[in-house]
Structures are given as structure tokens and as C-alpha cells.
Design a protein that fits this description.
mainly beta, Gamma-B Crystallin, domain 1, 4-stranded antiparallel sheet, 10 strands, globular
Length: about 140
């Protein structure tokens, strides 16, 4: 009776954590999170950029705004306004996704952004992303 059922499809290979995320011509890819386009306040830097492979393969891909330091900036937490989230845009390369959370402990899933996207608008005054889980899509 089993001969009436088709053979199962072969498993789809999943990228390993050691696979390298590379763009065209072997370029390293990065993820950038920026402030709102209005650019208020006295910030010396207005974005945080990091290597996509590093973000995906470190800390289970989990990052919150308190970890996104820009050492050359004043203040160093450029994606916060005091204690509040001040991130308004995200760029994610192809092959990656960003799950956005409302709370610093990665609870309250808000939305998912799949790359490739450049300067995807995240801003909602009443619903602000404070943590991210970055992974391969």
C-alpha cells in the first residue's frame, strides 16, 4: 500500500551558523538601524551599523538598543532618546531578516522585516521597537 504514496521530497538544506553572509563580489554585508529622518537632538552620529554575519551569529542574533553603542558618538546610545527608543529606519541585506520586539527582553513581537530593504520605516510614536532578533531568512 505504500507504493501509492510518492517519495517524500528531499530535505531543504538550511544555512549553517558558520555559513558566511556575503553580498555581490564577496562583499561583507551589514545591518544598519537609524534614527528617524527628522534627526532631532544633538547627536554626533545618527545610526548604528554592524556586520550582518556577526549580528546573526552572536548572542543568538538577539540585540537590544542598550547594546547598540557607537563609541565615537555623543551620546553613545544613538538609537535612544533618554530612556526611550528613537530608532526609525532599518536596512537589512538579502538573506537576512529582523524580528522587532517592543521590550528589551525580546517580548512583544511587533513585526518582521525581510531583506533586502533599505531605510524601511519603523517609526510609530506609540509602538516603538526596542529589541531585535537578527537571523537568516
Amino acid at each position: 500500500w505504500l507504493k501509492h504514496f510518492p517519495d517524500p521530497a528531499p530535505p531543504i538544506p538550511w544555512p549553517r551558523a558558520t555559513d558566511v553572509l556575503e553580498g555581490p563580489a564577496g562583499e561583507a554585508m551589514s545591518i544598519t538601524i537609524k534614527q528617524l529622518s527628522e534627526e532631532c537632538g544633538s547627536y554626533t552620529e545618527r545610526q548604528w551599523t554592524e556586520d550582518a554575519e556577526h549580528l546573526v551569529n552572536t548572542s543568538g542574533g538577539k540585540w537590544n538598543l542598550d547594546q547598540m553603542l557607537v563609541p565615537s558618538a555623543t551620546p553613545q546610545l544613538v538609537l535612544k532618546w533618554g530612556d526611550h527608543s528613537y530608532c526609525g529606519r532599518i536596512s537589512v541585506p538579502g538573506g537576512c531578516r529582523a524580528d522587532l520586539y517592543l521590550h528589551y527582553d525580546w517580548t512583544g513581537h511587533h513585526r518582521t522585516v525581510r531583506g533586502p530593504v533599505e531605510d524601511e520605516d519603523l517609526w510609530d510614536f506609540h509602538v516603538r521597537a526596542s529589541a531585535f532578533r537578527l537571523s537568516r531568512s
